[in-house]
């Protein structure tokens, strides 16, 4: 009797598990899509802000009024990216089934990845702390931040094209 | 028979040959530097190639006879005739570019120009590395041009492969050493041509190259003096 009920119980649990898991899969699939779109939008904005800052810094006399918004935007986007679990939850990697450059290493080496995001945020914060009149320091920090981007991309992002 | 007599004749001038072989070196340098994220080298290589291509285009108007577009860009009738007859005639030797090869030169120069111009405006995915004129376009336009920059490279690779296959064909079936002609400048032509080819002076080539390089330096500085 006892043995029988156990068997039924296990089958029931299995059935329930299947139902629950598929529901989770359906929800997380949609959620993964959303989070991937959100992080791609973030990185795209970051790229655009970076270009804007770089363009202004290349001018013979960069205008502070043009530099300030880009620097603030970069710092803000970088800070958002560094929030643990926000843009890179489990399931939002290559297995999500949508196009993403995120490599599985992000979830295989979570600490290393989080450290890289933290570096991004720190360097972006350092950029924001430089007075925009000091274009020499801005340029140097721009390059430093660029290196932080590239270092992380080398380990955690698919090669472009 | 005069066709049995072979005359060693200077066909390619030094500027054309040097331009050709520098491109052979620099196109792979550009590819390698892009693949390995050496964008500083990529830009330098690109600027040099741009100078060379601008020089070669100008040389096509003011250079030596065999370098001039007017002398080797032919109409469809000539191209068809060449492709259906002369190409398979072992005895037939072209003094400069043959009618089919002439279009290959135009195609390679055109795709090189497209490659160079898209590179000037291209922006990488992170907005860190960019061409010197990318500040004139938006991030999205710069990205689109970077993608085109990738695609035109594939077209260029195809044209280069076609070019090498054609040169191999001439070496194997027509027994014409086009590579050594492009190195030393001489070809063995049939008979004893009375009219010699006209060559432009090397000084003229230097002046054209300096002008082309100055223009490129201006572009590389973002059109700022």
Helix residue percentage of chain A? over 70%
The poorly predicted ranges of chain B are none
Assign an overall shape of chain A.
elongated
Number of helices of chain B: 8
Spatial strand arrangement across the major sheet of chain B: 1-2
- Rg of chain B to the nearest angstrom? 20 Å
Could you characterize the architecture of this molecule?
The complex is a heterodimer of chains A (161) and B (225). Chain A is an all-alpha fold. Chain A has helices at 2-58, 64-82, 105-108, 110-129, 135-156. Chain A has five helices and no strands. In chain A, helix 2 runs antiparallel to helix 4. Chain A is elongated. The N and C termini of chain A lie far apart (63 Å). With 225 residues, chain B is mainly alpha-helical. In chain B, strands 1-2 form a two-stranded antiparallel ribbon. Chain B has helices at residues 14-35, 39-62, 69-72, 76-84, 99-121, 139-172, 178-184, 202-220; strands at residues 6-10, 186-190. Chain B contains eight helices and two strands, in the order E-H-H-H-H-H-H-H-E-H. Chain A binds chain B through residues 44, 46-52, 54-55, 58-60, 146, 149-150, 153, 160-161, and chain B through 37, 123-128, 130, 134-135, 138-140, 142, 147, 150, 222, 224.
What order do the helices and strands come in, and which of them pair?
The complex is a heterodimer of chains A (161) and B (225).
Chain A: H1 2-58, H2 64-82, H3 105-108, H4 110-129, H5 135-156
Helix pairs in contact in A: 1-2, 1-5, 2-4, 4-5
Chain B: E1 6-10, H1 14-35, H2 39-62, H3 69-72, H4 76-84, H5 99-121, H6 139-172, H7 178-184, E2 186-190, H8 202-220
Helix pairs in contact in B: 1-2, 2-5, 2-8, 5-6
Briefly summarize what is shown.
With 161 residues, chain A is mostly helical. Chain A contains five helices and no strands. The relative contact order of chain A is 0.11.
